[in-house]
Design brief:
With 962 residues, the chain is of the alpha+beta class. The protein is built from 14 helices and 54 strands.
């Protein structure tokens, strides 16, 4: 198969070479576009040859230039949001053309690329697509363009910290969303050790964004594995069209009236700088820099969570001895009081037997004989100890409380947890993000361009996985070489992930406790003091409180030197044998890709695109995430695709596409796509599509081997080698539900082992997940000022990748495993969305609503749809309500829904929020001042269970040369 792939790449290279020669014979179309009233140049105007995919857009000077093999006469289409579209026939000279646009109400004229990998009007896209242009970006009220994605139709976000937001569409949202792809300038922006994008930590700065396109639903036929729930493509500005120096300074405040953290109002600061220059339209250079610093949102949910039953329970630290706070860590370590007492008893018997060389084989039997039928009091215990050799007295004295407690029935069948630490005392909330991007460009002619690009970023943030992770000084670099033309591209890039000083907050809380006092000491101390209190006549509740107070004497307190020393030492040691909380991930990805568009070669009679890609994952965590402590793990993937499109008159266009992909550990996959667009009237189109998508199990699904929950659970990969490593095929684990039933029977005094249900893994092992998606939609102009977009979809998932929790050795010392597995039955979901854009006078109104539903929940399926049924967005704005003044207001509401993740499970309440901004343009100095805020009413809300509540962020920004 690799030989075939090599041949495909060679063929593409030959095609590209041929394309370069052909382009040398093309003609140049160039000119300038200005505002008819002000005579000022208009940047970002779309200039295309009517009926073709050929064109360009204007730069800051209103100038455009592109090459084409088309021969005159042809018609140019010049369009821009807010202006009347102009069409002009070009019959002779094609250089230095001039166009004037008149302000008018025009919608739906944007050109998109991602829907078909070829330029087309958004009205004519064969699948649902959302777009934010560079002009629209300037009007957004959200603090950043990435935050504003939440206002797009059908889009939802999971906010884990200020700088870490996961984007999703059409259900199955997640904190680290492996079902959603994100690309920046053609580069997959995922962190390769995680298999999902880390928000916009390593992304584009505000000043360097040219446009953002979002495809809801499956897109594997064109973009490969992943993205079965959506694909986001961000494109930066090039140095030819967007030259000069720009900078933006933004300052603001958050944590206003933050009663839960009590830290008071905090400052927010952000600086963005961009420099770009080209020489003779040949050599181009640009660089951008962004730095953000703020106090992050804090996760402060202290409600009591039952991690076995996976649900909230009543009680708090004072009333529940087995309390486990949602955002409290270290209290996951829990032991049964009777089990601990029996363990102490067995250890004491064995220890004295060994110490006396068998002379006292069973100290319990000896005590029973000394006090038949009675529970010895303090005086009797002292007398008994006096008859023992001095060397044995301390061990037997320590044993007596457990002996008395067990014999007198004073020890309840009660689980007790250690005292934990709040997340606010463990996680670094001094969030920061530094990102840079530098690229060199060279044009061999008007259509062929070479690019060398380096994107690098580092930051401190917080991520929610199975535990909460403090991503301190996390780093990602992306480095790309690309050769592209009007009809082709060849690119290769690498993504280098470095975990920096990132650590697991849950493990950190647990190990701080263990460093101060091991659980093997703390639990016996607790129970010994409990028995003493109960024997003294105290109630159970009072005895529990007394026992904890005594066992916690000397406990490390946040803010003290001892606590900070232990915290720093554990956070700096790696997970695993070093008994630390730090990750050491240095996973790399290498990707190579090529594409050629034959459409112009065929005079656009048909559209034909072919492409191929190859990538390698080099996993390197030194055993802190993956099972790679003693070996190297490399995963290779490759694929090829083709798309054929044909227009039948001016009314109907049909496109057929297909892609084949193969990953090292799994069989190859073919993902077809069929789309059709019917123009029912000018600027009114009905679309229908059948798309397929799939995703390979992530690198962690395949090879993870990590203790989480303070060591209470082990996450392992779903490959047969991982299953066999822990003997789960021979010494089978039992399901979590059956284990809970068994515990309930044991608590009732009648342990019933027949309730335990062993789990058998699929002999075929873990498989890729796939989806078949059916969609119909309409997008059109009801009037020149009213744009309507609506769609409905139906998804069928097969081999859905979920997880199973198993307990090995359930009747003795149970060991908990969490393993990714495929759901045997099909999972189905459906939904739709409806949106309106309306322009009247100087005002722009928008509104959209979306609906998503899991049609049925198969038996054994752990419901992680994690999506509200209904969401609603509405907004109004004006670029210039009075001279040089503009504004924008956006309202967002979503229904309550059930959130299920490996970290925690529960209901997320409904919420509504407003974002707003007013701006003043200062043309004399090419600047804009903006005053705005997100969640301006400061109603704290959470987007997902266990994540922080988000309050208002108010900001003031100054932008030069935006």
């Amino acid at each position: 198969m690799k030989k075939i792939f090599t041949k495909v790449i060679f063929m593409l290279f030959m095609l590209l070479t041929t394309g370069v020669v052909a382009h040398a014979q093309s003609i140049v179309v160039s000119g300038t576009v200005t505002d008819k009233l002000t005579k000022e140049p208009i940047p970002g105007v779309s200039v295309t040859i009517k009926g073709k995919t050929i064109g360009s857009s204007t730069d800051l000077k209103g100038q455009f230039s592109f090459s084409t093999t088309e021969k005159v006469p042809f018609t140019l289409n010049i369009s821009y949001i807010g202006y009347t579209t102009v069409e002009r026939e070009v019959t002779g000279n094609t250089s230095n053309l001039t166009f004037e646009l008149e302000s008018g109400v025009v919608l739906g004229q944007e050109v998109v690329v991602s829907a078909s990998r070829t330029p087309e009007r958004i009205l004519e896209s064969p699948v649902s697509i959302e777009r934010i242009s560079s002009a629209a970006l300037k009007e957004l009220p959200a603090p950043s363009f990435y935050d504003a994605l939440n206002n797009l139709k059908g889009v939802e976000m999971s906010t884990q910290s200020m700088t870490f937001r996961s984007v999703n569409t059409r259900g199955f949202n997640a904190n680290g969303n492996v079902r959603f792809n994100q690309y920046i300038d053609g580069m997959d922006n995922q962190a390769p050790g995680l298999n999902f994008s880390v928000g916009n930590i390593v992304g584009l700065t505000e000043l360097d964004v040219d446009n953002v396109e979002l495809l809801p639903g499956a897109a594997s036929a064109l973009y490969g594995a992943g993205g079965i729930n959506g694909t986001l493509l961000m494109t930066s500005k090039n140095p030819y069209q967007y030259q000069g120096a720009s900078f933006q300074y933004k300052t603001g405040i958050n944590h206003v009236n933050d009663d839960k953290t009590g830290q008071g109002v905090q400052e927010f600061k952000e600086l963005n700088v961009r420099l770009a220059k080209s020489w003779n339209n040949k050599f181009g250079f640009k660089t951008s820099f962004g730095f953000l610093q703020a106090k992050d949102w804090a996760a402060t949910d202290t409600r009591n969570f039952d991690r076995t039953a996976r649900q909230l329970k009543s009680g708090d630290r004072n009333s529940d001895p087995n309390y486990d706070g949602v955002n409290v860590y270290g209290d996951e370590i829990s032991q049964n009081m009777i089990n601990v007492s029996q363990s102490v008893q067995n250890q004491t018997i064995a220890g004295i037997n060994a110490a006396t060389s068998g002379a006292i084989p069973n100290i319990k039997t000896m005590i029973d004989g000394a006090f038949p039928g009675i529970v010895p009091n303090a005086a009797q215990q002292a007398a008994f100890l006096g008859g023992l050799p001095a060397a044995l007295r301390p061990a037997v004295a320590n044993y007596f409380p457990f002996y008395v407690g067990l014999k007198a029935g004073l020890i309840p069948n009660q689980f007790v947890s250690r005292t934990g630490y709040n997340e606010t005392d463990l996680v670094d909330y001094d969030t920061k993000s530094l990102k840079t991007s530098t690229s060199l460009h060279y044009k061999f002619n008007n259509t062929v361009e070479a690019i060398a690009q380096a994107n690098w970023g580092t930051g401190t943030s917080v991520y929610t996985g199975t535990d909460r992770y403090s991503l301190r000084n996390f780093k990602i670099g992306q480095y790309k070489l690309e050769l592209k033309g009007q009809d082709f591209f060849l690119r290769g890039y690498t993504t280098q992930e470095r975990s920096g000083d990132a650590y697991n907050a849950t493990i950190l809380g647990t190990f701080i406790n263990e460093a101060w006092k091991p659980s093997t000491t703390w639990f016996p101390q607790y129970i010994g003091n409990y028995v003493g209190a109960r024997a003294g006549g105290q109630t159970d509740a009072a005895a529990q409180a007394y026992a904890r107070s005594q066992a916690d004497i000397g406990r490390l307190v946040p803010g003290t030197a001892g606590y900070e020393t232990a915290k720093s030492a554990i956070a700096s040691k790696t997970i695993g044998p070093a008994n630390g909380a730090k990750f050491n991930d240095k996973t790399n990805l290498y990707h190579y890709e090529g594409m050629y568009n034959f459409s112009n070669a065929f005079n656009n009679v048909v559209e034909l695109i072919v492409g191929a890609s190859y990538r390698d994952y080099f996993l390197h965590s030194e055993g802190t995430i993956f099972d790679d402590l003693t070996r190297d793990i490399v995963i290779d993937e490759y694929g090829a695709y083709a798309q054929l499109g044909k227009k039948f008159g001016d009314k109907f266009k049909m496109t057929v596409a297909g892609r084949y992909d193969k990953s090292k550990n799994f069989e190859g996959r073919l993902t077809p796509r069929i789309t059709g667009v019917w123009t029912v009237a000018p600027n009114n189109n009905i679309r229908a599509s059948f798309q397929t998508g799939y995703r390979n199990p992530t690198t962690q699904d395949q090879y993870i081997d990590l203790a989480v929950g303070g060591g209470s659970t082990r996450l392992i990969g779903g490959l047969p080698e991982s299953i066999n490593k822990y003997n789960l095929n021979t010494n089978k684990g039992v399901t979590a539900a059956s284990y809970r039933a068994f515990l309930a029977s044991a608590a009732a005094g009648a342990p019933n082992t027949t309730l335990l249900q062993p789990y058998t893994f699929d002999a075929g092992g873990l498989r890729p997940e796939s989806v078949k998606s059916f969609e119909v939609g309409y997008k059109g102009l009801a009037t020149r000022s009213l744009l309507i977009d609506a769609y409905a979809y139906y998804n069928i998932y097969e081999d859905f990748i979920g997880g199973v929790e198993l307990y090995q050795n359930p009747t003795t010392t149970a060991v908990k495993f969490s393993v990714p597995v495929n759901i045997a039955t099909k999972v189905k979901s459906y939904g739709g969305a409806f949106g309106l854009d309306y322009q009247v006078g100087k005002f722009n109104f928008n509104g959209n609503t979306s609906y998503n539903k899991l049609s049925d929940i198969p038996a054994g399926f752990d419901n992680n749809f994690n999506t509200p049924e209904w969401r609603f967005n509405a907004g109004v704005g004006s670029k210039e309500i009075i001279k040089n003044f503009g504004f924008n207001v956006q309202y967002r509401w979503q229904d309550q829904f059930y959130w299920n993740s490996t970290f925690a499970t529960g209901t997320v309440p409904s919420y509504s929020t407003f974002d707003a901004q007013v701006n003043l343009k200062i043309p004399s100095v090419k600047s804009v001042v903006k005053l705005g805020g997100s969640n301006v009413l400061n109603k704290y809300y959470s987007t997902s269970f266990g994540n922080p509540e988000v309050g208002a962020l108010y900001y003031l920004s100054f932008t030069f040369n935006p």
